Amino acid sequence: MATSRVKHGGRAFHFDWRFTLVTLLIVLGAFIMLLPFAWMLSTSLKPSGSVLTIPPQLIPESATLDAYSRVAKSFPIVRVFWNSVLVATATTVGQLVICSMSGYAFARLRFPGRNTLFYLYLSTLMVPFAVTVTPLFIIVKTLGWTNSYAGLIVPAMFSAFGTFLMRQFFLSLPRELEEAATIDGASTLTTFLRVILPISGPPFATLGIFAFMASWNNFLWPLLIVNDREYMTLPLALSTLQGLYPGQTEWNLIMAGAVITVVPMILFFLFAQRWVVEGITASGLKG
Length: 287
What we know:
Strand order of the largest sheet: 1-2
CATH class of the largest domain: Mainly Alpha
CATH architecture of the largest domain: Orthogonal Bundle
Number of domains: 2
Order of helices and strands: EEHHHHHHHHHHHHH
Shape: globular
Largest sheet: 2 strands, antiparallel
Number of strands: 2
Strand content: under 5%
Structural class: mainly alpha
Number of helices: 13
CATH topology of the largest domain: MetI-like fold
């Protein structure tokens, strides 16, 4: 290792240059990652006339919450926030149920064409959403789900990535668990519910975070099927703050709305982060 031996107070200790360099790089990377969030928060606290001052000011001279109050008056913030929470939560729960069941079926149940069907389903990950959005919109419109929670939630409940993630985790589990349950007289459904699911916390947390983040930040799909303010989500509401012409955009309002949108995601991630690495390790490296 790249170390140096230094004497201090009559005793020698080793100075690890490699560890120090790696630590500095990590600190630098963390600073670069956090800088946009700090600038977003700083801009949201600035008065309208101080946003584009030169030189830029990271710490506002006269901080104010005026932008937040104006954002709350621009659209029904409580209703919009509730819509985002409802849609993201329902989508996440739906993905956990559907992806866990389909992942278990592909991992453990034997039926003709299982692997072919799985790889065909997995190949849809390579198809851009812009390619499928038109037929998906036609289906949703035919079902009468435009301007409804069903149109926002149901199409997002199916995920090829989530099915892959859960399947890889179930493949890593020893079959002896299910064989013991079968000997005790448990059916396939009972084994899945009472044996497999209780030990599936890490991949569930990982998939839950991914699904919640994707639904919370989704803009294109709600934009296509929602034109009623009653069903508007936060990304759509933020788009209404954008000026129609150059020079009309009040960036402190947009940054205030962005802070309102980002804070719940940060809290949700901090709550579940201890399961993320374990879930990815258990689910993504086996095959």
